Amino acid sequence: MPVHGHCDPRFAALREALEQNFAERGELGAALTVSVDGKPVADLWGGWADEARTREWTPDTLVNVFSVGKAMASICLLRLVERGRIELDAPVAARWPQFAARGKEAVTLRMVLAHRAGLPGVSRPLPDGAMYDLGLMSAALADEGPWWEPGTAHGYHVNSFGFLLAEIVRRVSGESIGEMFEREVGGPLGAEFHWGIGPQEDDRVAEFLFDAMASRRAGEGLAGPGEDERDRREALRRIYFNPPGISGLGTVNTRAWRAAQIASTNGHGTARGVARVYGALARGGTIDGVRVLDAETIERATAEQSAGPDLVLHRPTRFGLGFQLTQPERPLGASPRSFGHFGAGGSLGFADPDERLAFGYVMNRAGPRWQNPRNRALVDAVYSSL
């Protein structure tokens, strides 16, 4: 499969790694953009935007990048913190009174951003399509009791994270999270990243293909040794599959899914768009005169808030405020200060402030969720070229 685009000769290993992803690692369609100090050193793409292989991938192909969007959503909250519109350590219920129900009156925005709020899912069964109704999802989470004592431990809020952030943004700013991101970040940067895709864009949105067996195994390891298997499966169902389709399985390529604003899960972007946002963050928050965050905010947001055994994933994870932090089991390059976010199936965006490097990789055939050989090969190739 030919790989198109520009690559600085110094980074020739990147083109080779992407070509190997197509030849040896099952890639269908993908794009990769890497910049150093705001200047692109690689802007590559190739493959197909559909399973039938009738549409070639182009630099403007949009694709669902799943949890890559969690960091983008967090940027919106961090901008509101910078303005003093909301405080990290104030109770969420101060702006969302209903959220205080069932022992959550002391849960803070910091806990939510660090996956320490104890709300990884909703216990009561939700109807089909509930994820398309932000009011319904917000009310369900407000009425949910914490699954552990908030602030005492962390567990990945797989899908709930985005609904929590979106409701807080709406209550504080009066805008949807998609509107705020486009107006304040994506639009000024010229970065293509969207929640809520209109039908006029369908011709350039890639189909996303899940590996059926990998999807069934999405929550393996959720429970530790000795935990009841039925409890484990029920917890898995509530986190990943309540309501049905909330994780994208069976819904990802539908018009309803693309039109929705599901901040944890259904952000659509290009590799250029993801790398453009991280290009600003890698340079202290500003690029080409557009400020995304203050340097001090980035330092606060990338300081470790949660680390160690994850109560949901049952493996080690590290989080700042909305960003995943590099860790030995899942490194974001060589710098101990790198931060970003992976997406289900392999997509990835991150910044390395030491190298002033930004990385955006998007694709449409899912691979392993945890340690993905495709994105790992690309990251390794970047650092071998520096």
Question: What does this molecule look like?
Answer:
With 386 residues, this protein is α+β, with helices and mostly antiparallel strands. It has a domain of 224 residues: Beta-lactamase. The protein is built from twelve helices and 14 strands. Helix 2 packs across helix 6 and helix 4 packs across helix 5. The two termini are 26 Å apart. About 4% of the residues have low confidence.
Brief characterization of the structure:
This protein has helices at 12-24, 68-82, 109-113, 134-143, 160-173, 177-189, 212-216, 229-240, 255-259, 271-281, 295-301, 373-385, and strands at 3-7, 29-36, 39-47, 63-64, 193-194, 268-269, 286-287, 290-291, 306-309, 316-319, 324-325, 339-342, 348-352, 357-363. Mean pLDDT is 94; it is low at 213-226. Helices cover 32% and strands 15% of the residues.
